[in-house]
Each structure stands twice: as structure tokens, then as C-alpha cells.
Amino acid sequence: MAEVRLEVRADGTKVMIGSGSSSNSRPAGVAGTIPRAPRARSAPPQVEGWIREEAGRLALDPDLVRAVIQVESDFNPRATSHKGAMGLMQLMPQTAASLAVSDPYDPRQNIRGGAAYLERMLRRFGRTDLALAAYNAGPAAVDRYDGIPPYAETRAYVEKVLRIHRHDPGFRLPQMAVSSSRPSSQPRTYLYRDPNGSLVMTTEPPG
Asked: Which residue(s) pair with 4 in the sheet?
């Protein structure tokens, strides 16, 4: 009997893979192993008007705001995440309050607040990919890792938004190290035995 395992791809897609089975077979009810790349979709007409209004007010690219909304909520103004993010642009309660959004489920208020937060992240980090990472994981995480945090969810989120924004379904973020790119403040230590047989630990490499 073929063994089946669950694999989570970089973009967050979950795929069931069976070993020892033919390439043309797959467990019933399981999608193919090639995930469908996200493509830009049109917003409802009224939502589109609010996107363009807020993007114009903040000198933002409306296509970027629309891409964020598509990935965050798929244009559902009543969307609520398991973490408590709300509305079209999935504002957390504390973020909504800081942006003077009294009703995150009101589409116009939500777009106004989410666009303002996105513009704030763009000004802070100066790059679209870093601003999107901050929108998803928080600016402190981007500061901590001095770049896109090595979180699978955040990297998949940034990829999806940029694919839609750039109209490039094949876009991928470059590979990155899991650890922070910032140099460690701890000096390297060396452990060795000297000619007398004593164990020595030092920060200087042995000669």
C-alpha cells in the first residue's frame, strides 16, 4: 500500500503526496501537486472606487492596495482571521484603533486604515517587499531580521501579493538563510589542548 504524506509548499499550499504510486494517480479529493498561481482579480465597483480614492490621497499604487485586499480577504468585508484580524485589509484591533478605524467591518473605513498603514510601512522601509512583510508580520519582525522574516507564512504572503501586483504568476522570492543576516555580537571560541595536555578555551585561533 502506498504511503501518503502531507507536504506544505513555500506558498502555503498543502499537498498530499503518495510514494510508490503512479504519477497519474492521487488520493481521492486531493488537488494536483501544482498549485494554481494567484492572479489579479477585479474588485467590486464600489470597493474599487474606495481603493482608488485612498490610493490617490496617499500617493499609493492602487494595484498594490487591491492586491493586498485580494490576498488578505478575497474582497470579503466580513472576513475574520483566527488571530482576530478583521475586514477587507485584515486589521488587527489595536492597529484599527491606532488608525482611528471605529468599525473595521465598514469597507470604506477599513480601506482607509489599511491603505494608511501600508503607506506608513512603505515610508518606513522604502521597499515594497519589506513593507508587505511588515504589514503581515509587523515592523518589529522586519527590523529584527533586517529583512523579510524567515516565516513561511510571511514569505508566502509577500510572494502572493507581488505575483498579483506584478501580474507574474511565476514570481518567487530569492532563497534566504533562516537566521538573521545581522552579524553575531558573540566572538567565536576555540577549544584545544596545549602541549602540556591542558584543555584551553580561547577567542584567539590556535597557532
From this structure: 18
